[in-house]
Automatic annotation (TrEMBL):
GO terms for molecular function: oxidoreductase activity. This is NAD(P)-dependent dehydrogenase, short-chain alcohol dehydrogenase family. SUPFAM superfamilies: NAD(P)-binding Rossmann-fold domains (SSF51735). Pfam families: adh_short_C2 (PF13561).
Amino acid sequence: MLLENKTAVIYGGGGSIGGAMADAFAAEGARVFLAGRTPDRLEAVAARIRDAGGQVETAVVDALDAAAVNDHVDAVVEKTGGVDVSVNVITMEGLFQPLADIPADAFTAAIGRTLTTQLVTTKAAARHMVQQQSGVLLFFGGSDPANATAGMGNVQVGFDAVESLRRQWAVELAPSGVRTVTLLTGGVVDTFPDVPEMEGARQGIIDASPLKRAATLADVGAVAAFVASEKGRSIASTQVNISFGACHG
C-alpha cells in the first residue's frame, strides 16, 4: 500500500474533498486524523473509513485557533511518532459576484481567514516535519493565470494567495526534506448540488477541458494519495494539474 505506516492529518476532513482524501489515504494504509468543527460530519467520514477497514480518528478543532491546532498536532505526534502528511481543505468563503459589487471589508475578511487557517495549520505540521526531516504538505485549489471566468469574486484571488503562500513554504522547507504540492483543480463536479441551476456550471467545467471531462472526488483522492506517497517523492515545490487540462497553472 502506498501510505502504509504513514500518518495523515486532514483539516476540513468532514467535507467532500477532505473525505475523499481521507478515504484514499486510509485505503492506502495511512492512519488518518480528521479535524474540523462539525462532529457529525467528521464521524460520518470516519464511519465510512472504519467500515472499509481503515484506521481513523476525529477531533473537533477550530483551524483558525493556533493554540488548538498546535495542541492537536502535538497529540497526534505523541500518539503516532510523527506526522507525514498534512492537508487543509477547509472551504474558502466564496463571494461569487463581480469584484465591483463586493464590499471591501467582506472581501478582505474572507481572504484573511483563508490565509490564516492555511498558515496556522501548515506551521503546526511544519514544526514537526522539520524535526523529522521529512513530510508532505498538500494544498488544494491552485493558481490558474489563464483564468478567464467572470464573476469568480474572491475565489480565484484566494486560491492565488494560498498558492503564493505554498511557494514561500517550499523555499523555506525544502532544505529540511519537506515537500509542498498543490492540487490544481478546475472544479470537482460531484461536489455540486444536484439541482437544475447548477447544470450550467457543471457543464462549463467539462467543456473547458480539452478531454471534455472533469475531475471527480475519486480522482482527487487517488492523486492526493500518490503525491503524498514515496512513489510521488519527485513531485515537490509545484502544482499538480488534476483539471483534465482545463486549468493552465
